[in-house]
Amino acid sequence: MRVGGGGAGGRAGRQGAFVFPPDGMLSSSSSSSSPSSSMPESHKHAGGGEGEEELAFLAEEDDLRQTLRLSALEFTISLSEARAGMVKKQAGWTDIVVRGCLEAMGEFDEEAEGGLEGWLSDDPLNSSSSADTDSPPALYEQSLNRLACAMGGRAVLPPAFQYIPSMLASYDWRVHHAGLMAIATIGKVMQNELGKIVDLVTPMFSDSHPRVRDQLCTDLEEIIQKYHQQLFAVLIPTLEDPEPRIHSTLLPYLDPIVERLLKLLNPAGDPATVKRYVQEQAITTLAMVADASELTFVKHYSSIMPLLLNVLRNAEGLDYRKLRVKAMECAGLIAIAVGRDVFRPDSNTLVELLMRIQKGRSIQRIHSWGTRTASAKADVSVYEDDEEKVEEREGWETVIMDGQTLVIRTSAIEEKCQAFETLVIYCSTLGARFAPYLAQSLEVTLPALRFYFHEGVREACALLIPMLLAAGKASATLTNQMVSATFHQLISCISTEHDASFLASLYKCFNDAMRVIGGAGALPREYNEGVVDGHLHQDQAI
């Protein structure tokens, strides 16, 4: 099978299945298949620059041809989705669309986006490249997936596998890559054939081109789960490939892989070749392995923990923040997995490193961020009259409340909820040491009990209030004014709350807060009577 027949190079041979328009349509005579014959006279007699003009004309023609092909493709796919039953009756319809997609998926421009070197040096987790989604091969891949979903496996698999085996046997890596993309794309409709597919694709792990091996690593997750014995025999050695990008997408398991992961963390070669995102993924995988294997991980402890402590000790700066966080998580999981006796010699070192990180400027900024963001007001636009006039904007949500249409910026609300959840963590962990933030935290928490735009904010506040009172009592900084303001707000909210589920949270908050200050006897009579009146008001409302 010839893949890439639609490109400029493909016109020299027989015409591909999806070349559109056919050769000759852009010219007025049968001889116009030659570039020079279809070129305007002004281009052919332009003097010394005619070579450059001819190249420019050919490039323009190729762009036009590509645009027409993609337009025709979108039409056929859309029609297949809308009238699948009708097009199934048309002989050859599915065959030619499948073949056209497969051919175009192999038209890979390796020089785009920095070429192979650029691809290898790129971080796949933070890549801003659009080549994976907007390039012609990617668009044809998406179209093949849409066709498979619309037409079903019985219609798509026979024509697809008429070509895929020969694609995988081709000498051209781009054709290998396209064949693997096709298998991954239509995988949902070929689950009954997975065993045969595994036998077909596993030899590709020894392909000489890194893009082919990477395609296998990223697109075969479902197959991995069912055919692990066959696949891990070839997956594990792939961790030793010289291209770092391939490593980051593998999901290695248990003892046979730990040694390779350690090599990725602490390579013996040039440190300049180490990719940070590979180390991050290796640490994440080690944490998963430790969490799953528990005591069987003990034999690897002496090799791994010193590396993690070294990361926490030396990985400074914003660029290494993610690596440091992953090392903290991994060290904790490993400590739990191996048990106290094994972890004890390194426990003091780890605690000292964590305390040093805790005292850093970034953590201090988090403290400040928590109270400042928690006090932020919702970004709301109010529309009194016509609901249809409300413009839909990305990142905003429309809510109908008390006959008004409110448009709320959701990102700010999520940050506010996260801020209160952060305050809950700090207050519960620090206890009396949270006293310097007590007054400021109560000042922003009590009004937020009526923050109706996000239930998570209100629930976090109801959970936080008793903790704040407990921190104030333990540190002897709790004042009568704080207690009075807290119970006054709680009673007011209980009396007017319409949400039954949050009303239960308010009752629990009131009860927990009352216990903190010494029980019902420690409350002034007016607050005891107030909560009873609020409860009676709720009973009448029901």
Automatic annotation (TrEMBL):
<dbReference type="InterPro" id="IPR011989">
    <property type="entry name" value="ARM-like"/>
</dbReference>
<feature type="region of interest" description="Disordered">
    <location>
        <begin position="113"/>
        <end position="137"/>
    </location>
</feature>
<keyword id="KW-0677">Repeat</keyword>
<dbReference type="Pfam" id="PF18808">
    <property type="entry name" value="Importin_rep_4"/>
</dbReference>
<dbReference type="GO" id="GO:0006606">
    <property type="term" value="P:protein import into nucleus"/>
</dbReference>
<keyword id="KW-0653">Protein transport</keyword>
<dbReference type="InterPro" id="IPR041653">
    <property type="entry name" value="Importin_rep_4"/>
</dbReference>
<dbReference type="GO" id="GO:0005737">
    <property type="term" value="C:cytoplasm"/>
</dbReference>
<keyword id="KW-0813">Transport</keyword>
<dbReference type="GO" id="GO:0005634">
    <property type="term" value="C:nucleus"/>
</dbReference>
<feature type="region of interest" description="Disordered">
    <location>
        <begin position="1"/>
        <end position="50"/>
    </location>
</feature>
<dbReference type="InterPro" id="IPR040122">
    <property type="entry name" value="Importin_beta"/>
</dbReference>
<feature type="compositionally biased region" description="Low complexity">
    <location>
        <begin position="127"/>
        <end position="137"/>
    </location>
</feature>
<keyword id="KW-0963">Cytoplasm</keyword>
<feature type="compositionally biased region" description="Low complexity">
    <location>
        <begin position="27"/>
        <end position="38"/>
    </location>
</feature>
<dbReference type="InterPro" id="IPR016024">
    <property type="entry name" value="ARM-type_fold"/>
</dbReference>
<feature type="compositionally biased region" description="Gly residues">
    <location>
        <begin position="1"/>
        <end position="13"/>
    </location>
</feature>
<protein>
    <submittedName>
        <fullName>Uncharacterized protein</fullName>
    </submittedName>
</protein>
